[in-house]
Design a protein that fits this description.
3-stranded antiparallel beta sheet; 19 helices; 6-stranded parallel beta sheet
Amino acid sequence: MMLPLENLKVIEMGQLIAGPMAGRMLAEFGADVIKIEPPLKGDPLRKWRLLHNGNSVWWAAQSRNKRSLTLDLRDKAGQEIAISLLKEADVLIENFRPGTLDKWGMSWESLHELNPGLIVLSVSGYGQTGPYRDRPGFGAIGEAMGGLRYLSGEPGRPPVRVGISIGDSLSALHGVIGILLALRHRDLSGQGQQIDVALYEAVFNMMESLIPEYSISGHIRQPAGSSLPGIAPTNAYLCRDGKYVLIAGNGDSIFQRLMLTINRPDLAEMEELKHNDGRVRHVEMLDDAINQWTKKKTLTEVLSDLNEGGVPAGKIYDAADIAADPHFIKRDMLIKDSLPDGTPVTLPGIVPKLLTTPGQIRSKAPTLGEHTNEVLLALGLSPSQQDDLKSRGII
């Protein structure tokens, strides 16, 4: 089966999360992604989080389907090799600080002249323009500037971070969307373009009504713990066995079903509670009524009753819950694979799910420089030339 991005040539110069995640998604749907890494040490992600035999387990997921080329981009000879690759490439992914590629002879203008169809995804903390352009950026800082960190946590307590690098991941998703849009434009015009993704803007794009509300009334939205201000009832409720259930009863008809399920037909019939704005005015009363019901039942009992009543609800999953869940398994979201030494590992499945041309895992995450020889041979560099480059620390 031909994958939708088959024959797309991608050069990935990014490190860690945002750029490489974008490359991973393209590779899962057929793109040939050549990942350029510094000789000897490689992408720092190889040493992040849990290590197995000195290598990151995360690496097995983040770099699957890619080819690894070691190349010192700070050296003139390394830059020339990269430029040779970009002559024939469709996409370049980079997440260096703005201006870095310019210093290496790979400015957008020069690359566009070299290869007019090339699409360049540039991910940075603050974007390629603006007064903050040259500041060092990181996902956590983007989350804070984009407005997410301020809203995270309990009222009156220090803000908390989501336990993953959500700012980087959101930037990667926006980057992939940008690449696909640019490919469509290239189909029509024959011309590539640069895609400028800023970490803080990717986060800010998720902030829903934050700014419109402020512009109308000066309202500054505040952290609200597990609830969602302005939408009711939706919260985490404690059950008899000490576990929490998440209940989303904020749709008008759903609210009716929720009240009947918790044996409060009186609230279901109240005119003031027919629509969300009225329920928001009485949210504390509603949360208390729901809590009075959940604390008398175990989580399993609560979920059974709510599912039967047609009310959206769920438990809070940890890694063990996910790994044992039959729905994750049935939907191919838990893929059995192995690490380079043969150790079994479960990797996250591929999304989105294309029903005709679904993504695939075609190869394991590469060892450092695993494909250097074959990539450079394809460029016309002989084994003796490669030996010379290796002796000089360029590959």
